[in-house]
Amino acid sequence: MILFKHIISGPIDADKMDYLLRDSHFSGCQTGVYDLDYLLNNLRIGISEATEEGEMPKISLAINKKALGGLEDFVYSRFHMYVEIYSHKTYAGFKFILREALREVLSVPENAKQLKHAISNLTQFEKFTDAFFWEKFRLYEEANPNSFCSQLLKRKRLKHLSDLEVSAIDDDEVREEQDRLKSKYTHGRVISWTDSAKFSEIKGEFDHLRVRIVDGNKIRLKQVINASSFFKKFGNVIKYHFYLINQKAT
Predict the structure, then answer these.
(1) pLDDT tens-digit series, residues 68-126
(2) Are strands 58-64 and 210-215 parallel, antiparallel or unpaired?
(3) Are 112 and 51 in a shared domain?
(4) Closest Cα to residue 242, out of 188, 183, 177?
(5) Radius of gyration of the chain measured on its C-alpha atoms
(6) Residues in CB range of 250: below 8 A, 6 or more apart
(7) How many Cβ atoms sit within 10 Å of the Cβ of residue 179?
């Protein structure tokens, strides 16, 4: 069961392999490209020997040692997609707009009631799609033309003022930058939005992945983060974006 879990939700699961290449293609950014076929052809089932009497052998996902470079390419692609695409000012700005648009829609009692009913009833939940929200966005925009729903539907970007990249959360530095921008842009509301690319979290996902090393007639398994110095090269990147919001937006 652990093996299947890692295939569905693990360091190199099917979803991550798919979205990296797909997002890279549709964004026009080659950062997320890696050799999918080579990686798949070198994945194996790793069975470790029992270390104590009566202990069951442990089964995990493993990769051939020769494909360690291919795995490193995959991890590098994933990390830099976060840095360059998922933390991009336009992407981050629309995430903020989407969040606020959802708040607007759910501030309508009838919408909140419908949502609560849908998520508490499995039959209704099966039929619940994003079409519900797009219709609610449209209805809210008709009554509130200066809303975040309107900005979302019209693909109207927030005005990006600046960004700040740090290796750790620094509230003082963010506050200083926000205060500076507030004094400069007095005709609107200055907000900050952050997205973090934490390599420490990505690294932690690989604790259960093993490298398959063939030594003559013997096969050894080694924890991937101990088999490659690659995982020691990156740190955390936290990017703050600062935007100006029109006061009319509610």
Answers:
(1) 999 999 998 988 888 888 889 999 999 999 999 999 999 999 999 999 988 888 888 88
(2) parallel
(3) no
(4) 177
(5) 23
(6) 104, 144, 146, 147, 148
(7) 11
Is 160 exposed, middle or buried (CB count within 10 Å of its CB: 0-12, 13-18, 19+)? middle
Other CB atoms within a 10 A radius of the CB of residue 151 amount to 23
Kindly state whether residues 82 and 92 are assigned to the same domain. no
Q: How many domains does the chain have?
A: 2
243 closest CA partner among 142, 146, 150, 163 = 163
Q: Which two tokens stand for residue 60?
A: 């995990």
Does this model's pTM top 0.85?
A: no
Please list the alpha-helical segments (H only) found in 28-130: 36-41, 68-81, 89-106, 109-119, 122-126
d(CA 220, CA 31): 33
The identity of residue 23, as a single letter, is: D
Q: Are 244 and 189 in contact (CB under 8 A)?
A: yes
The whole domain housing 108 covers 88-157
